[in-house]
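Let's do one together. I've listed all components of the complex below, 973 residues spread over two lines.
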Amino acid sequence: MPEPTNTPTRSIIVCGSGLAASLTALSLARGLDETCGIIQVRGAAVPQEDVLYGNATDPASYNFLRRLGLDEPTLLLKSAASFSYGCHFRKWLSSHSWLQCHHAPFKTISGIPLFHHVTRASAALQPLLVSAQAALAGRFAHPPSDPGNALSQAEYGYQTDPCELTRLVDAQLANTHVRRLDADIRSIEAEGSRLTAIQLDTGETVTASLFIDASGPSRRAINSVGGRFNAERTIGAAKTTRATDQLGPPCREIETNALGWTSKAFLQNGEHVLHVGPADTAENPDAHFTVELGHLTNAWVGNCVAIGHAASVVEPLTPAPMIMLQRDIERLLELIPVLDDMTVEQKEFNRRFREDTAHITMFHDALLSGSDAPASSYWRDALSKPHNEKLERKITQFTNRGILTRYDLEPFNDEDWTIAHMGMGRVPSQYDRQVDRISKDETERNLTHMSETIKQLIPKMPPHHIYVAKLKQYLEKKNHV
Amino acid sequence: MTAAALSNKFKSLGLEITLVESDQIGTVGVGEATLPHIRFFNQALGIDEPTFMKSTEATFKLGIEFCDWGQRGDHYIHPFGDYGLPLDDLDFHQFWLKLQKAGQARRLSDYSYPIVAAENGRFQIPGDDPNKIGSNFGYAYQFDSSLYARFLRSYSEDKGVRRLEGRVVDVDLDSESGDVNSVKLEDGSRVTADLFVDCSGFRGVLIEQALETGYDDWSQWLPCNRAIAVPCESRGELLPFTRATARTAGWQWRIPLQHRTGNGHVYWNEFISDDEAAHQLMSSLEGPALAEPKQLFFKTGRRKKFWNRNVVSIGLSAGFLEPLESTSIHLIQEGITSLIELFPSQTINPLDIAEYNDRMALNFERVRDFLLLHYVATQRDDSEMWRYFQAMELPASLQEKIAAWSSRGYVLKYEFGVFLPPSWIAVMLGQNLLPTDHDPRIDKYPLADVKRRLDEIDQETRRAVEATPTQAEFLRRYGAASASAPILANGM
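Okay, and this is what the predicted structure of the assembly comes out as:
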């Protein structure tokens, strides 16, 4: 194994041609000066598993994409992206349906968190969530900054198509110093846990001090230095697009079926439908491909860092796959090695990667429970995983008395957890006793006032399709792009 | 503090709160300096700031000055706030590191409003505009903890807390559950309750003497085990910061209040006698002593369980970490906040106990690492104590933080814990732990641009500080000046 020398990172090779690779290459190009050479080795084919980045982003994607030159007008005008207040879970493994919406921190009443009042009044949470109600009504408007307006509590992400997003990112990449090589990898050379060179089918050999494996589930580079993937289970997936006359609501819809689950996203160019089910094609004729869910033990090995599906694959039940991809890239940028010896960066990257993976998996595991799961192999596998201690504590503390147990730097916040718990019918058996300081009548008056305010606001909001159309007209008039 | 907070939260819920305390038992009185979080505690109790300050002889605190820690003759202030302003979502200190490497940077402190204001004895409440340098900081207080205790006692009694004067002489445990049933006072009376909060100090009357909970001894990392405290007359300008000066076998504090200055010497008795420690303290007072020096004995560490059975330990009964970063009162506050959130309803749930213990353990551990940093990020080897720290094997959690910082100025990320990245940066750079490199993303900014931007921040900081009144002036104007304070009376 070659001894690391103390030289700065002056060259980076990004392997892959899909969304993860392009976003990583563009982020590196934007983040680093031109003396750091960046090569993107693009294989002939974009991994079909890219559809598993899903059709939804979370509110943090606004800043993430804007920093890369992909601001909201660009997304709306140059792709079929639309807005997303969240995801509508319909009869999810039970009789429960709810809108898993993006929401600002809940307001407190008399200094006590909202859901304790809701629990005491045996009321429903959903009518109090403006983004949930707007999404269900198919309406959208940008949240105003005026805190007196109920809509200011709404947050939003986007409904996107990963392939289209890749195209947009690639267009940006053309104007950077990234050298893009359209070639397949013939072989990878490694000494111990360090990659030394990549031979391409064009005959060229490229070398770098840091290698990024963004090749998707093939993980060719990270495998060459001993990357270990912990597979949880295998799923089959298929995606179709249906043209529609009119843009649908500002939320995805997701529901269970006998084989697995189906999600519908509503973009400007139609409905994007994703079927997820068992890997066995005999049982699941829709499956276009199969993929192992799971994650690497360490996403940074030697001088190779795995990003996106090369590092972890989660089902797009929520915006988790995009959140994880963004976090992978942000973590990488914060830890671009300063020397050939990358021990410090590797350790911190892997610590945060493991935490992020565990926290995202925990949120999904919390969603995968219910009394009415179909009796199919997919659901048997999906529901067979026992909850780990951290999740068990989260659920028990919430159902016992409405305590939200928190861990460091979780991607899903208190509001996400509260909405999911209550949406799935997890109601605290006790509420915070301090709620009793105000009368039951006052609690009910407060909650009624909140829901009535939202009820009156929603009809005044434009339907999603009209809002997007008018916004685009305005942007085009302004010659934005 | 616990009785006040519980009475405020649960006063109208039929919860009966009894405060058992004895005027014969003095308070330790080392926790006179606080962290900014104390303001939220007071605000939650609805306490009026000027009234509280006047009643407790309080001054404002913008940070802590550390003298002689990196090397003899060094000094720096750990401020309550960020340095400079972030640029393009990148940390300010990374730009400073680049400029410093090129030999063109001023002191990092020059880009910090709270530091420059503190050095000039000035203070004002932070402004509302987050983009202005004079808004981007926090502040705390330095106060007389005995007066604060009296202030809160009166607050609690007004809220219906029953106060019993007396010492606990015996504890009755339930023979089956092992829970505390009642405590017996000197006069023979018994006080029963469902839940007991042990705020009895180092002795841990309930948590340790009765329940034998056990203690994690952290002396191997924080070996100072004694302190001597003495107040003295104030001299000179009323400065809005606490001072901690490193000594050969410990360190000395100076806390300026309105009516006096609190002083103390924390030391490791292995390397200095009590007499010598007292001599070092008394010979360095800025004015005549106002009382006899008080000797304190302690062992750093924490209770194995902060909440055991039906007893919750808060304050010194929960653990002790030397007051180098004013964390004593903060850890009390953390305990109270968690207790309120997890307050038992009908019965005590083991899950709540586990949750409480996990939260407090994390708090203590993260504070421990930060305190230890002061002793190990140093070039001093001029005494046995400093050589001990030079040779020490650090906890892995701290080792990783120092390694990440030393190579590239990166502060390991976490969300919970009192000391966030700006605090780590202040101490590591203040004690000459200069990273060998900086974040490579900074290299896309030309040096001249970085210098221009930092010069602007420096000038903005100076202008903001020039427009800031002195602390004495502000206290008077704010209605927080105590009538007994000679410095304020003299208009200094």
